[in-house]
Amino acid sequence: MSDTARERIFAKLRPAVAAGEFNVPSPELPPRPEWTQTEKVEKLKTLMEAVRSEVHAVKAEAWTDALKALARRRGFKTMLYAPGTPVGDAVKQAWSEGSGSLPALRTYEGTIENYKDTLFHDTDVGITSTLGGIAETGALILWPDAAEPRLMSLIPPIHIAVLEADKIYGTFAEAMETMAWPERMPTNALLISGPSKTADIEMTLAFGVHGPKELIVFILEP
Amino acid sequence: MGDPTFSFEKNVETALGDTQLRANFAFAMSTLYQKRKAVFADEAETERLREIGNAVRQRALGKLPELLEKLEKKCTENGIQVHWAETTEEANRIILKIMEDHQARRMVKGKSMVSEEMHLNKFLEEHGKEVMETDLGEYIIQLAGETPSHIIVPAVHKNKDQIARLFHEKIPGAPYTEKVEELNALARKTLREKFQHADIGLSGVNMAVAETGTLCLVENEGNGRMCTTVPPVHVAVMGLEKVVEKLSDVPPVLRLLTGSATGQIITTYFNMITTPRKPGEKDGPKEVHLVILDNGRSAILGDPELRQTLQCIRCGTCLNHCPVYTRIGGHAYGFVYPGPIGKILTPQMEGLEKTGGIVSASSLCNACEEVCPVKIPIPELIRRMRNESYDPKGTVPGHGYKWNLPEVLVWKIWALVNRFPRLNELAVKMGGLFGNRFPKIGPIKQWTRIRTAPRLARHSLHELVKAEGVENE
């Protein structure tokens, strides 16, 4: 059925576009903002905090100390991490140096089909890396993959994301262009600006409706 | 389609008399209006962005067949299965078949206006499937057995007291609470169960990128990501106009969409899906299907003026700025797409005669055109719909349905009277003498029901001026 539907649709579309042309000059794209790295960090931080993300700019060499202090202070019980990634390996290393009153580390066992129960019901925190950030709108870029699956940043009530300051781009367009996205789109690419939210009841903003209730970002500065 | 007992006039009257409904809309619409204004504070920059949005959409429509073929090719290469549906019935059948092929019984749905257009939930439920809306607003109206009253905030016609009662009655074991956080928590708990156990997830598509075969979804809640990542099968449905040519077209359209829809510089999530789960990956659907629906769109594309309707990115900002919509709400329009965009889209899809004169319900104030992120000249197209209603030689389905001899004669006489000064003078004289005694019947009765009829003066301006002794008046 759908093959003939396809033919019927194209038989209508082809003469339709020939019926008259849109006369559109393509306007110039807005100029790229030229921000310094400090400005980009500041802008991203301000915008993401405005949508209730918790952003910590820390020295790169001390980020796991900051993470441990935060985890202890907040009393997290379990944390899902991705071994084999720079972020995951740093976490593992830091935990091996003393994990008193720190959350138990978990890894994503098998596939979602058999890991669902643990992921949905017994995981406090998911910690992931990021591909970069966008200063103009305040957002993280994530390209989940085999090592760092898609649901790590969605199901646990708290998502911790690690962002290197020198990977913050001015705009989304700049990020796409610099990293040549058109040639290498992954299974799933995400922009994330804050914790899950809704204003569907009386325009009242509420957080954590389906996805994470909290988004904590560590920006690693040189 | 549509309710056979649908009467736009009656709906308007009911809506205008419902003080609760009017208060709910007045509050929500002014909030959205203010939020948009704040995010598009720089007029020059906003105008430039709108120019870009307009150009991106027009360029895509100008080569639509080519881009759709490219999208199909790219998606297929990426492992996404593409289906074509000429009618909503075909689209529903395709989705049912996918469910049956997988013995899928439970579906979780992200927000999709195209699925509303298809009446998909009803269709699948009639075939024994469980369909769960998961966008909070959609979930609320599904519990209430209603349809969306707004294309972005579907439950905006309800206030929290009404939602509190609804949840208490419909969600097993739910306590009565009017606290918004607690209501959200109730929905979260119920729906997380559904996400975990669903056999299939369905979503709409905000933009599909032909260059890479990528499906883009814009959302705040995370339910869209859930529906497209947790179940083993994902079906996306899109109207065939939703394609853009290049990945570089995405950032400006995204910015316009989130700013216009909810006054956000960016939403919580922007979700770009290019392939199903690849070998070695631990989650994501093993199968992704894309259903591309025509349902009258290809016919709209053939008219060089009306095709601008298809530029629409479904942000809903024309609803929020419409003096008619903000007073009567979305249900009064009787069809899936309400407000200014509905007034031009619905008649073209359903036929003018079926839409009960919704094209008359506009003051042509131009607010919709001024805020439209892709610069659709909505008022101009509304005027076209009105002309088509009377034009037996028109092209829009149902054209000429309002044509009638008495009205034609009245206007012919009007034209004559205004062409010949003597005739005009005589008509004015007669008006002054007998006009106030004219019986209030037909359209005059309708007009004067809630308005005071103007009193015609005994003497015309001409006569008065003449009496003053002015020469060559």
Give an overview of the whole structure.
The complex is a heterodimer of chains A (222) and B (473). In chain A, a hairpin with a 7-residue loop joins strand 10 and strand 11. By secondary structure, chain A is of the alpha/beta class. The N and C termini of chain A lie far apart (59 Å). Chain A has 6 helices and 12 strands. By secondary structure, chain B is of the alpha/beta class. Helix content of chain B is 50%, strand content 10%. The longest helix of chain B has 21 residues, at 19-39. The model of chain B has no long low-confidence stretch (mean pLDDT 95). Strand 9 (188-192) of chain A pairs antiparallel with strand 9 of chain B.
Task: Supply the key terms.
heterodimer; A: 222 residues; alpha/beta; six-stranded parallel β-sheet; four-stranded mixed β-sheet; 32% helix; globular; B: 473 residues; Fumarate Reductase Iron-sulfur Protein, Chain B, domain 2; Rossmann fold; 3 domains; 22 helices; 10 strands; elongated
